Structure formats: structure tokens, C-alpha cells
């Protein structure tokens, strides 16, 4: 979303005077040499869209297109900054990279350092590992790839936004800045070799490079957008947007646009950007081909920019607030997001709870003030200092290297210390015995421990914060089912069928469980039961990919088909099925109970039933497990952090009516002959309330997933129904 901060202006009136003398299209020597009012105005539009989207998404649900506007501007300006000195034989890699570093690093490193302090003071320890890891990735300009890596994990998508998540776009731009000079330099080398023979100019070689980058990256973006959510952050799916800006600059070197057409283009471009920002939303597949709309709109605005045309949008460009917003766009972008993320903790809200409007207004006001002073006290002085150094007869660039290394250490060392502190707590072994298997195969559990506290007649005392297991930090970080630790849960676009034996490999009774990450929720309980009875238990798990006939994504559909073939060939005695209840394919993700309409639920149930019938035809008994309650739609988006903040977990309870959906899997089980249903709801909720800490055990991790610790405590109470299902299957 970010671009390099604009160069300092000496006088607005002088800028206006220059604007009246430049040619009517950008890209000429005069227009790229001096500050261009239209570029500042487009920056203002982009940052306004992004900030409004982040603070008030209901007003501007597609405001994220401001990112794409910034990318086009960056491609336009950087291509000009590189191509002109290359053509004149005066380009210097050291000067180019030094200027980028002087302009970008001081403000960004200052923001990251303050963010580390805010995290240490206000943010629960449950989020320290994630936040500090992202801060370090941002300091290294690889935040986009860190987020892309996390986004392929279905459960990671549901976790809290990182306090520096907005640095992904800056990372993307820096990676483009690092590579693009090399590409254009190579084009220049080709040009110089051929010029001696045929006089070929540099422009065609650059055009070919830009065109190839545009076509290949756009094609890859279209393919990946429908395949993986990582496409949103990847440099490879965004490079074409920078290339579009470069092609625009190149084309405008040779084209003069008539006044009337240019004015019309300016208004049309602003309209396209506005329409996309108003009509796109979180469900819009992005970037992909649809990103062509805001890219085209931005290109029209830049190409049609005519501040002196009475009928064009130039009068808007010259407004002082617009120019000021363009000036501070870089700093405003840097500051607004960390403030927005930390504000709920400052005012005492639980992690993930929506920030009230008044607090968002405070965030906006503080961000604007910080942006103003960051521009005046950091950006402009550093730019002036670096410009003076660059103009020296023998410019030295070691200063920027010292700045980069020192800044990285100042940010990374405290962040690494916080990460290590949380990691040590997360790795500390719990001393709680929990569920054990006796010599005779009986599952035993201490009274009032975990799910035992939900049994009728249990009179359990209040558990002190220090005695809660796993600790909130452990629950938030890594209390996963055993199968996840062994790499048995397939992620993202992987279509590999991974069958993992987690029971008794020599068992004559063969069980399997198949589904998404919510099927993995119950694996620890089934694993204990299988080992106690010497049964084989094989897992087939894929994040975000429930075993249903309905289409989800191409990779998921491939995995489902191959896994179903495997299950039919293996002919397991019992196949357990489970899935996230608010992903009722077809129908998409629902975010609250009333969105799961009867029509959607019926279609989803029918899709499950059709798949189960194929398993039954192969001779397997199908046992469906109803999904666990979802605290995120019950008003508690982050249970571990809530427990960390509240101390005992009572403040983190939610109502059964709000958090327990009418699971399509359960509906399909009730209506499909021969399918048994196991409903574990009584182990999660009682008297209309679903506690987040039960019997001293934190129940949920990563929004709506169940901790391994609590899942294991459920085993003795699920055992009778599981044994009944297995006995029925063996006698049928």
C-alpha cells in the first residue's frame, strides 16, 4: 500500500506555476523532474481509500484497492527514475538504492520501533510471538511472504490481524525496487550492443520487458487468485500492477492526449476508482483479473491529469487538503494500522472484539497528527540530508548502510527478546496428568479436570489463573492435535493424500477420520480411544476442505476426489466425518448464526450426504461428529488472549444460542439412513452457556479450534458412543 514519500516541495505556488508549463501528459522531462500535483492527488485518493477501509469498512468495503493505486504510481515513477539516467548513461545502482533507503527506512523503522514498545506495554503475551515475528519480517521487507505463508493455513487465516500486517505492500514494493533496476539495466546493455549496428533505442527493450512482466504476472495472478488466498500478498501476483505503471510512463513519452479527451479520462479514472472502492468487498476474488479495474482507473487519472484544464479534475488536485494528504500519505499509512490494532487493548477490550466508533475516531486523529510530524521531523530532514550527500563531488553511501543495520538491530533485538520470552513459556511442559490409559485399557481422568467438569453432579471449585492449562500463551501458539505436528494435515493448494496412522498400527479394527481442521479437533480424543481398544485409526485431513460433493477450490476438489477413492479402496470399518459448521459448502463462509439460512444448510447437508453414500457403498459405516461451538460468532474472537487479560476466563464465556450453529453435518446425519451422529455439545455448553475455560483447561485456540488438551479430556465421555458405533459396524 505504501510508496516512497514524495520529495519535499519548496512552494505550492511554484509547483502550480510549473504545472502550467509542463506538457499535458505525465512522463515528460519537466513533469517527472518536478513535483506533480496530480500524482500527489492520486496518492491522497489512495491513502484515503485505505484508511477509511481499515477504520470504517462498512463505508468503503473495497477501499483496499488503494493498494493497487499505489502500486501503479510506484511503477510509473520508478520506471521514470531508472530509465532516464540509463538512457543517458548516468545510472548508478548505488545512488538509486541509497536514495530508496534514505527515503523509506527512517520513517518505517521509527514506526516499527514504536510498535515494539506498544506491543510490550499493551498487547497480551498470547500475541507476542505472532506480532514480533511479523515485526521482524517487516524490518527485513519480507512481510508479504510471511503473510502469504500463513494465509495458506486455513486456521491461520482466522487468527488476529498482525500489528504490522500493512507492511506487506511496502515489502512488495521494495522487492520490486530491488529487481527492476537490474531488469532495465539488462535492457540497456542490449540496447547499447545493438545501437552500434542499428541504432535501436532503449524504449522497445523496456516495453518488451514490461509487457512480458505484465502478461505473465497477470496470468499467474488470475490463476492463483482462484486457487490460494496467498495470492493477495505474493509479489509474483502483484508485479503486473507495477508493470502497468511502467508501461503507462513509457507510452506517454510518445503520445500527446487532446485536452477534452484528457479531461474526460481524468474524471472517468476517478469514477472507476470510486466505484471499485464502493462495490468491491471481502468476498471479491482479488487481485486476479478484476484488479484490472482499479489499475485502469489509476492509469486514466495519471494519463489524463491536466491541472490547467477548466473542465478537468485539476481544481481538486490543487486543493490544499488534498495536497497535504498526498504529502503525508506514506507516514499516515505507516502509523494508522498499528494504532488501530493496539487501541482495543489500550481501552481494555478483549482481543478481536470490534473497536467502537469513538475509539476509531481517536485512532484517526492520532494517526493524522503523527503523520504530520513524522513528515516534518523525520522524512523531510532525512531527505534534505541525503540529497546534500548525493550532490557532493564524491558521494558516500556508507551512512545509509549504517542506518539500515543499526535500525534493523534496534527493532529486531527487543522484538526477538519478546518472542523468545513467549516461546519459552509456550515450550514449557505442563505438569498436569490429564487422561491416562490404565493397564486394562480403561480411560481415566481426574475429577473436575477438563470435560469431567461438565458431567452431571460435578461440583468443581474455581480454578486459579496460575493453574489453568494449557497456559494462554501455550494455547495460542501451538496446542495442536498430534497429527498437525507430524505434517499430516494437508494445507493450501497441496493435493497429496496423506493417511497418518495415529492409533494401534496392528489393530484389526480399522477406523478413519476425514475432513477439515475441525475434524482434526477431535483426533486427540479418538486417538486415545483407539489406543485404549487397540484399534487402528488413520487420519485424512485438509485445512479448509470438508469432505463434500460441493465444489470448493480446484486443489481441494482434487484432494477430495483422490481421498474418497482411497477410502473406498481401503474399506475401513468406520469412517468418522466432521467439518466446520460455518463453512456450509456450497454457500461460503458465514460470520453469524442468522447467515446460515435453511436453504444454504439444506444444500450443504445434501452435498455431505451424497459423499457419505459412496463410503457406505464401499462397506464402511459413517459416523458424523457435530461441530464444536464457535466462540468467534459468540462474541469472543480470541479465547487465549481473553483468558490472559481476564485472569480466570469467566469473562470469556459466550451463549450457546449465539455460538452453536445448526451444523449441516449433523443435519445430513439425521436424514441419511445408516449414518450415526455423535453430538459433543454437552461437553462444551451447559445451561445455555459455553465456557472458554472448563475444568481448568482452555477450550479454544485460534478462534474456533479446540485445544489438544481439552480434546483429550473429552475421550472418556465420547468413548461409549464411539464403541457403540464400532460394535454396530462389526455386527452389521
At a glance:
This protein is an alpha/beta fold. Helix content is 56%, strand content 6%.
Would you give an account of this structure?
The chain has 29 helices and 15 strands. The chain has 732 residues and is α/β, with parallel strands linked by helices. The chain has two domains: 12-423, no CATH class; 436-731, Rossmann fold (3-Layer(aba) Sandwich). The strands form five sheets. Strands 3, 4, 5, 6, 7, 8 and 10 form a seven-stranded mixed sheet that branches. Helix 5 (93-122) runs parallel beside helix 18 and helix 24 packs across helix 27 (664-671). The longest helix has 34 residues, at 357-390. The chain is elongated and about 85 Å long. It starts with 11 loop residues before the first helix and ends with a helix.
Amino acid at each position: 500500500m505504501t510508496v516512497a514519500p514524495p520529495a519535499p516541495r519548496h512552494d505550492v505556488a511554484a509547483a502550480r506555476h510549473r504545472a502550467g508549463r509542463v506538457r499535458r501528459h505525465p512522463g515528460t522531462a519537466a513533469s517527472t523532474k518536478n513535483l506533480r500535483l496530480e500524482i500527489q492527488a492520486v496518492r491522497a485518493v489512495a491513502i484515503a481509500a485505505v484508511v477509511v477501509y481499515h477504520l470504517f469498512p462498512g463505508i468503503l468495503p473495497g477501499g483496499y484497492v488503494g493498494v493497487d493505486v499505489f502500486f501503479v504510481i510506484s511503477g510509473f515513477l520508478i520506471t521514470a527514475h531508472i530509465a532516464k539516467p540509463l538512457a543517458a548513461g548516468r545510472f548508478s545502482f548505488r545512488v538509486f538504492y541509497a536514495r530508496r533507503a534514505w527515503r523509506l527506512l527512517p520513517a518505517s523503522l521509527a514506526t516499527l520501533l514504536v510498535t515494539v514498545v506498544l506491543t510490550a506495554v499493551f498487547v497480551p503475551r498470547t500475541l507476542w510471538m505472532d506480532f514480533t515475528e511479523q515485526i521482524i519480517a517487516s524490518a527485513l521487507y519480507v512481510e508479504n511472504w510471511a503473510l502469504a505463508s500463513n494465509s495458506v493455513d486455513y486456521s491461520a487465516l482466522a487468527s488476529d490481524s498482525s500489528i504490522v500486517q500493512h507492511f506487506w505492500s511496502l515489502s512488495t514494493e521494495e522487492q520490486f525496487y530491488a529487481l527492476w533496476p537490474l531488469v532495465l539495466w539488462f535492457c540497456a546493455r542490449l540496447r547499447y550492443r545493438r545501437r552500434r549496428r542499428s541504432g535501436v533505442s532503449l524504449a522497445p527493450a523496456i516495453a518488451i520487458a514490461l509487457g512480458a512482466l505484465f502478461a505473465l504476472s497477470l496470468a499467474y495472478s488470475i490463476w492463483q487468485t482462484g486457487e490460494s488466498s496467498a495470492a493477495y500478498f505474493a509479489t509474483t501476483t502483484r508485479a503486473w500492477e507495477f508493470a502497468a505503471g511502467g508501461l503507462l510512463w513509457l507510452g506517454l513519452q510518445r503520445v500527446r492526449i487532446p485536452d477534452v479527451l484528457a479531461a474526460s479520462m481524468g474524471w472517468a479514472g476517478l469514477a472507476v476508482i470510486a466505484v471499485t472502492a464502493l462495490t468491491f468487498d471481502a468476498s471479491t476474488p482479488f487481485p486476479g483479473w478484476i484488479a484490472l479495474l482499479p489499475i485502469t482507473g489509476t492509469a486514466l487519472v495519471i494519463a489524463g491529469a491536466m491541472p490547467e484544464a477548466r473542465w478537468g479534475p485539476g481544481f481538486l488536485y490543487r486543493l490544499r487538503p488534498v495536497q497535504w494528504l498526498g504529502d503525508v500519505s506514506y507516514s499516515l499509512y505507516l502509523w494508522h494500522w498499528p494504532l488501530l490494532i493496539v487501541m482495543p487493548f489500550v481501552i481494555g477490550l478483549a482481543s478481536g472484539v470490534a473497536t467502537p466508533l469513538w475509539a476509531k475516531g481517536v485512532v484517526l486523529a492520532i494517526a493524522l497528527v503523527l503523520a504530520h510530524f513524522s513528515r516534518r521531523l523525520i522524512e523531510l530532514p532525512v531527505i534534505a540530508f541525503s540529497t546534500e550527500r548525493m550532490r557532493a563531488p564524491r558521494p558516500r553511501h556508507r551512512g545509509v548502510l549504517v542506518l539500515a543495520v543499526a535500525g534493523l538491530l534496534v527493532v529486531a533485538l527487543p522484538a526477538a527478546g519478546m518472542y523468545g520470552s513467549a516461546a519459552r513459556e509456550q515450550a514449557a511442559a505442563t505438569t498436569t496428568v490429564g487422561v491416562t490409559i490404565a493397564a486394562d485399557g480403561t480411560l481415566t481422568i481426574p475429577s473436575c479436570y477438563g470435560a469431567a467438569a461438565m458431567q452431571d453432579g460435578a461440583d468443581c471449585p474455581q480454578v486459579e489463573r496460575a493453574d489453568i492449562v494449557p497456559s494462554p500463551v501455550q494455547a495460542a501458539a501451538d496446542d495442536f492435535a498430534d497429527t498437525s505436528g507430524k505434517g499430516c494435515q494437508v494445507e493450501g493448494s497441496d493435493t497429496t493424500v496423506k493417511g497418518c496412522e495415529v492409533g494401534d498400527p496392528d489393530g484389526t479394527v480399522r477406523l478413519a477420520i476425514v475432513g477439515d481442521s475441525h475434524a482434526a479437533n477431535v483426533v486427540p480424543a479418538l486417538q486415545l480411544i483407539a489406543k485404549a481398544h487397540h484399534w487402528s485409526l488413520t487420519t485424512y485431513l485438509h485445512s479448509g476442505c470438508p469432505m463434500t460433493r460441493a465444489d470448493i477450490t480446484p486443489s481441494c476438489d482434487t484432494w477430495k476426489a483422490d481421498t474418497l477413492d482411497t477410502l473406498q479402496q481401503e474399506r475401513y470399518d468406520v469412517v468418522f466425518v466432521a467439518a466446520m459448521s460455518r463453512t456450509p459448502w456450497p454457500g461460503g463462509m458465514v460470520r453469524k448464526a442468522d447467515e446460515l439460512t435453511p436453504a444454504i444448510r439444506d444444500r450443504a447437508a445434501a452435498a455431505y450426504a451424497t459423499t457419505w453414500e459412496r463410503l457406505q457403498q464401499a462397506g464402511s459405516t459413517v459416523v458424523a461428529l457435530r461441530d464444536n461451538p464457535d466462540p468467534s460468532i459468540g462474541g469472543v474472537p480470541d479465547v487465549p488472549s481473553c483468558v490472559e487479560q481476564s485472569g480466570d476466563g469467566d469473562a470469556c464465556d459466550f451463549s450457546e444460542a449465539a455460538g452453536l450453529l445448526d451444523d449441516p453435518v449433523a443435519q445430513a446425519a439425521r436424514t441419511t439412513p445408516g449414518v450415526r451422529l455423535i453430538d459433543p455439545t454437552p461437553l462444551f455448553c451447559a445451561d445455555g452457556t459455553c465456557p472458554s475455560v472448563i475444568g481448568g483447561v482452555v477450550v479454544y485456540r485460534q478462534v474456533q479450534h479446540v485445544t489438544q488438551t481439552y480434546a483429550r479430556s473429552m475421550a472418556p465421555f465420547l468413548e461409549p458412543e464411539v464403541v457403540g458405533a464400532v460394535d454396530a459396524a462389526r455386527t452389521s
